[in-house]
From TrEMBL, chains A, B:
UniProt keyword annotation of Magnesium present: no
Keywords, in A-Z order: Repressor, Stress response, Transcription, Transcription regulation
Ranges for domain HTH deoR-type: 34-62
Pfam families per record: HrcA, HTH_DeoR
Organism whose genome encodes this protein: Streptomyces capoamus
The protein, known as: Heat-inducible transcription repressor HrcA
A GO MF label: DNA binding
UniProt function note: Negative regulator of class I heat shock genes (grpE-dnaK-dnaJ and groELS operons). Prevents heat-shock induction of these operons.
Family classification: Belongs to the HrcA family.
GO biological process: negative regulation of DNA-templated transcription
Residues in Heat-inducible transcription repressor HrcA C-terminal domain copies: 103-321
DNA sequence: CTTTGGCACTCCCATGCGAAGAGTGCCAGG
DNA sequence: CCTGGCACTCTTCGCATGGGAGTGCCAAAG
C-alpha cells in the first residue's frame, strides 16, 4: 500500500504532465505543489512509484511520466469528476434545444462534446432494440413494392424497401398496417419478433407470402449489425496529440472509421456512470495510446445508447468526465421532450 | 506559347513529382523519360517554365516542383482521364449493389472512393429540391401532434415533428394526406411550394391553422440549409499528405468538419464532367494546398448531388478523375434502380 | 525509520562545423 | 538551338562539444 504522500506525488505528476506534456522532475514538483518535503524525498517516493509501475521514465535522467496504471489509479482514487459550471450548463442546454430532428440532435451533440473537451467526440444513435415503437408505416409504391418506415420514441426513423412476392392490394396493406401497429405500438423493439410471430395466419393465403416478407424485413432492420449508427466529430483535435503524431494519429483515424471498432469501444461500458478505458485497456491496437471516456444516455431511466470522447491518455480526466456526463444528461432530456 | 517539348518537360515533372514527392532535377528527368535531349537543354526549358510560373524551386539549387498553375495546365492540356479497368468496374458495381438503403449507398460510396483514390472522399446526399416526391406521409402521434415524413424517388427520407395549433382529427388528417399526395406525388420538390399554396382553402376554417402549419414545416425542410447533407470518409489518408503535416493537416480536418465549406467546395462545380479545383483555386483558406476533384451524379440525365475527393495538390489527377467519374456513374445507376 | 543536502553520473539536446551531394546558371563551342 | 563543362549555392548529414536537467546513492540529522 502506498502512503498518502506518495499518492499525492502521483496526483501531482499526473496533473503537471497533463498540463505541460513534458516529463516532470522532482525539483519542479516541489516548486509547483507545496508538498512540504524536499526534492530528495520526492525522488525516493518517485523511485517507489516507479517500482510499483505507476510511473516511468522515457530514458534515464529524464523526468517521470505516468503509466496507464498510474492514470488508472488517478482516475479511480485520486480525482473526482469536475462538474460543469452553471454558464457551461446553460450553454449546453441552449445549444441542444435548437435541434430540429434526431440527426440534428446527434450532430449538435458531437460538435458540443468536441468543443467542450477539445477531443474527438463519438455519439451513438439511440439503439433500436432498446427503444420502443412509436409507429410502423407501410406505403405502397407500386403494386408489388412496399416501403416500410419505422419510427421510435426517440425520434429515430428507419426505412426499407420491400419487394413483395405477389401484388398486394391497398386494403390488405391497410389491414396489415392496422394490425401491426395495434400489436407493436408502444412496445419495445426487442419484443417485436415475438409479437408478430403469428401475424401471417390472420391473412388470406395469397397474401401470406407478402406479409411474411414484410415482417422479415422488419426483423432484419432490428439485427445488431444494421441498427447501430454513430457520428463522430472533432477529428481536428487529433493534431494536438503530440509532436510525434504521424505514427500516433494514423491508426486512430483508421480506428475511427471502423464503426464496428467504435461501437465495441463504447459498448463495453457497463457501469451506469462514466466509464474510462485507458491506453492498453482498449482492445483495439491502434488505440493503445488513447483513452476513451464514455457514458450511456437515455430519455428515461435507462440508457438507449452511448456517447463519449477519444483522446490521448494524457488528458484532463476530471474535466472530460464532467463534460461527457453533463452532455449525456442534457441529451437525455432533449430526447425525452421530443 | 510554350513549345511542344516544354510541355512534355512539364508533364514529366508533374508525373515524377507526384510519384516521388520530391523536387525533380534536370538530370533525373532525362534519365527517367527519354526526351531525346540533354540535361542542359532541359535546364533551359525549366528556366522558361519557371519564368512563366508553371514550376518553382523550394530553394535555390533544389529541383523543381509544379505550381498550381502548372497542375492546372497539366490537367487541362497534358493529361486525360484514366479509365478504370474492367475488374475495377466490376468491383465497384458489386460493392455498391449490396446496399440496403440510401444511407448505406452513401456510406459505401464514401468507402469506395476513399479506397480507390487513397484520399478523403466526400459524398453529398441527393438534393431534395432536385429530386421528385415519391410520397408524403402524415402520422398522428397525439391529438395535436403530427409527424411529417417525406420520401424522394432517390430513396431519401426526411422527417419532422409538427406541433399543431389545434387538435386535428384522423379524418382531416387522411384528407390532407390524400390531397397533398395527389398534388405533389411525382412532382419535383422545387415545384412543391406553388402546388400547395392554396391547399388550406379546401379545409374547414378550424383546420386551416393546422394545415398551414404542416405545410410551412414541409416547406422548411426544403430550404437549402437543411436539405444538404453529406458524408465523408478516408480521413486516415490525410496522413500520407507530407512529412510536415501538423500544419497542413489541421486546417484540412477543420474544413472537413464544416459542412458548409464542403458543400460550397462541391457545389461550385458546374461542368457536366469532372471538375478539378487546384490549390488556391479553392476559396477556403485551409484548403490552399489541396485539390478537389468532384462530379455530379444522378439517377437520370440530371445531377441530383455531387461527390468527390479532397487530396494534396500533388495527386494523381488522371487516376483520381477516372475513379471519381466511374463511381459517380455507378451510384447513379444504383439510385435509378431503387 | 524517515527526511535531507550533497555529489557524481547519465543522458538528452542544442549548437557549430565540415564534407558530401544535388542541382542550378552561365558560357563557350558545335 | 543544343550540348558539355564548370563554378556556385544551398541543403542535409554526421560528428563532436557543452550545457542542463534529473537521477541515484550516501551519509548525516531528526
Amino acid at each position: 500500500m502506498l502512503s498518502e504522500r506518495r499518492l499525492q506525488v502521483l496526483r501531482a505528476i499526473v496533473q503537471d504532465y497533463v498540463g505541460t506534456e513534458e516529463p516532470v522532475g522532482s525539483k519542479a514538483l516541489t516548486e509547483r505543489h507545496n508538498l512540504g518535503v524536499s526534492p530528495a524525498t520526492v525522488r525516493n517516493d518517485m523511485a517507489a512509484l516507479e517500482e510499483e509501475g505507476y510511473i516511468a521514465q522515457p530514458h534515464t535522467s529524464a523526468g517521470r511520466i505516468p503509466t496507464d496504471k498510474g492514470y488508472r489509479l488517478f482516475v479511480d482514487k485520486l480525482a473526482g469528476v469536475k462538474p460543469m459550471t452553471a454558464p457551461e450548463r446553460r450553454a449546453i442546454q441552449n445549444f441542444l434545444e435548437g435541434a430540429v430532428d434526431l440527426d440534428d440532435v446527434v450532430a449538435r451533440t458531437v460538435r458540443l462534446l468536441a468543443q467542450l473537451t477539445r477531443q474527438v467526440a463519438v455519439v451513438q444513435y439511440p439503439s433500436l432494440t432498446r427503444s420502443t415503437v412509436r409507429h410502423v408505416e407501410l406505403l405502397s409504391l407500386a403494386p408489388a413494392r412496399v416501403m416500410l418506415v419505422l419510427i421510435t420514441d426517440t425520434g429515430r426513423v428507419e426505412q426499407r424497401m420491400v419487394d413483395c412476392p405477389a401484388p398486394f392490394g391497398e386494403t390488405s396493406l391497410a389491414d396489415l398496417r392496422a394490425r401491426l401497429n395495434s400489436r407493436v405500438a408502444g412496445r419495445r423493439f426487442s419484443d417485436v419478433p415475438k409479437l408478430v410471430e403469428d401475424l401471417p395466419d390472420a391473412f388470406e393465403p395469397e397474401d401470406r407470402g407478402t406479409v411474411s416478407t414484410v415482417l422479415s424485413t422488419l426483423l432484419e432492420t432490428l439485427v445488431e449489425e444494421n441498427e447501430e449508427r454513430l457520428m463522430i466529430g472533432g477529428t481536428a483535435n487529433l493534431t494536438r496529440f503530440g509532436h510525434d503524431f504521424p505514427l500516433t494519429i494514423r491508426p486512430v483515424l483508421e480506428a475511427l472509421e471502423e464503426q464496428v471498432v467504435l461501437l465495441k469501444l463504447l459498448g463495453e461500458a457497463k457501469d451506469p456512470g462514466v466509464t474510462v478505458r485507458i491506453g492498453h485497456e482498449n482492445a483495439h491496437e491502434g488505440l493503445n495510446s488513447t483513452s476513451v471516456v464514455s457514458v450511456g444516455y437515455g430519455s428515461g431511466g435507462e440508457a438507449v445508447a452511448k456517447l463519449g470522447v477519444v483522446g490521448p491518455t494524457r488528458m484532463d480526466y476530471p474535466g472530460t468526465m464532467g463534460a461527457v456526463r453533463a452532455v449525456a444528461r442534457y441529451v437525455g432530456q432533449i430526447l425525452a421532450e421530443s
